[in-house]
Amino acid sequence: MALAKVIRIDRVGGPEVLRLEDIDVFEPGPGEVRLRHVAVGLNYADTYFRNGTYPIPLPNGMGVEAAGVVQAVGEGVTNVVVGDRVTYTGFINTLGAYSTERLISAAPLIKLPDGIAFETAAAMTMRGLTSAYLMRRIHPFKAGDTVLLHAAAGGVGLIVSQWAKLLGLTVIGTVSTGEKAEVARAHGCDHTINYSHEDVAKRVRELTNGVGVNVVFDSVGKSTFMASLDSLKRRGLMVCVGTASGTIPPFDPQILARKGSLFLTRPALADYIADPAEKAELAGEIFGHVAAGRIRIDINQRYALPDAAQAHRDLESRKTTGSSIFVI
């Protein structure tokens, strides 16, 4: 048994509902491991669990991504052993990552390559796997294609930008400040649009000689949805990967026909890593790029676990760039 510090909630709401507790962590049961965390990922999806957008049983832990060292294994565990360096990400099945130590199913665990540090892993496992399926599964990209990438200076945005350049794509990134525009360009964006004072769709048309882009990656949602559709070329693909500004309201699908026979998808990471073989393939690709230096992971915000509320405030106010982690 070990004593751990954890962040939990017993009601949904703002960052103030996050509370720090001490709990006992017992020995793992069948199929479980006891894992000591070294670094924990901070993702925008965490705010959805906290505010009720993603309903969960209460009380409950927070966070779905972390990296650490296996301390003990339960009966039947064969994919990891004591002492293994591992990382994980998931959805409700991995809730509880905001902790110094925990019990977790062995199934989601991914062994860390030697060239990937704990902090890097915590900052990139969810974002990296998300970027991997966006780049390798969503659309048959070919060199010369153009993409519009919202939140280009965010954690996923910076990885997608770099990966897109490896594929020979042209990247148009949207940002909210001049500082974020510089960050986005430094990571591969060919053009940036400051949506605070520029008309996104109009500017996209100017940059593409009126044609529009092949694909839009939209993690913002409600406030950017129509501009994203208006930025696509005929038979282009709209990929809704988040709702940072709110849920997209119901709409008549006929609008997709009127705007050029557009395609639309709302993917979830869970459906692209459900198959262990596909998960291993995607993880191998992103870890390989990072280990080789072809894609770099910027950790621009580090927090202590007791500062979880402030971390959520910073995330929701769009003060952050790149990846954010808790250092244990």
From TrEMBL:
It comes from Polaromonas jejuensis. Transmembrane segments: none annotated. Residues 13-326 form the Enoyl reductase (ER) domain. Keywords: NADP, Oxidoreductase. This is Quinone oxidoreductase family protein. SUPFAM superfamilies: GroES-like, NAD(P)-binding Rossmann-fold domains.
